[in-house]
Amino acid sequence: MALPDPDGADEAAAQAPAAPEPELAQAFDRLVDEGEARLARPWATLLVTGLLGGIDIGTGVLAFLLVKHETGSQTLAGMAFSIGFVALLLARSELFTENFLVPVAAVAARRDSLRALGRLWSVTLLMNLVGGWLVAWLIVQAFPELHDTARTAGTYYAELGVSVRSFALAVLAGVVITLMTRMQHATEDLVVQIVPALLFGALLAGGQLFHCVLDSLLMFSALIAGAPFGYLDWLGALAWSALGNLVGGVGLVASLRLVRVPGRLLEERARNS
User: Fold this and answer.
1) Residue 52: count of CB within 10 angstroms of its CB
2) Which has the least CB within 10 A, 119, 165, 175, 224?
3) What is the dihedral of CA 198, 200, 204, 206, to 10 degrees?
4) Residue 184 CB neighbours (<10 A)
5) What are phi and psi of 209, to 5 degrees?
6) Tell me: the pLDDT tens digits for 209-237?
């Protein structure tokens, strides 16, 4: 009868992924379960959720423009914009960039496919933009006194162009909103979840980071108010900012967060293969 090889046992133990902290494992499980549910949404639900996300974040844009017009302060306007993120949280709607962590975790765990992720991303972004354009039109029609403020705010993003600086701003925007999503999923306490919405919303808008949906709404407002740029300029800014957002959100936050729970991730992948 062969005796156990202590060296082999030690080597196998060294190669086995360490058990994650209980809090990390629980948060991972919540991410994967919710991500699976998001990816499995029927078309009607997916379309409406994205549309409402654009409308809800539009309330933050309205607050931003009103405060910026009255105070001239980017910081105060950014704090006012956080209303939009609170609306997203409490109304259970979504932005395209809020799907850089939750459904990505589900795909990494093999609960669903990359095709389903592409469907979620593309439909959510499109409907965010449709809902956002509608609110931007309403803002410009309802508040003529905001036209100059809207043109100035939107033109800033149109003039960023394709550069290292604008890409860095887009990457930071992706990091900020994905980290906000991660912090909100670390707890089930709704009151605690509001805190990241307030803080990171203010950072995103107050810091003038390059976020594809928020900045599109500001550019829409500027365009409707007679901005000195066109929709082709907006489309270029959208593509460049969305790429940077993806790099920041998926590459620098979501992927590294998944590395922290390798054992749970391997278990899920084995179970769902």
Assistant:
1) 19
2) 165
3) 50
4) 23
5) -70, 160
6) 999 999 999 999 999 999 999 999 999 99
